[in-house]
Amino acid sequence: GLLGVLGTYYLFTRQFDPLLILPAAGCGFLATAVLNINNIRDMDTDIASGKRTFAARIGRSWARRYHWFLVLGGGLMAMIYIAWRAQTAWPWLCLPAWGPLILSAWVVATSQDPVLLDKQLKRTAISSLLFNLLLAIGFALD
Fold this sequence. Notes:
mainly alpha
């Protein structure tokens, strides 16, 4: 998220670039999407044990909408940054990794089966990592 991306950038360059807030927040949104799936999946047991996660506070329906916001927002922030800063097509290398994230968000939004949510948790974590790695590699090659 913000601290990881902006902090690392500052350590290497000794500069702050406000436009980097876009991909930094995008990384954070995708990481939060992983946590959100976990919270949706465990909502009933969390509520029963007194845990008040964000998903538990807003309810299952809104948590699913929030998940769409995280996945779409994370990808769009990165793409706005790419459109603004890329000098070649290399940064767009991350785009195919967004497909599994959108597919996973659809399953999260429509499924009531905790087993399917387990699969989407794994898919979202791996796809988020791949998206962010490909974005970084794309800009390294840019």
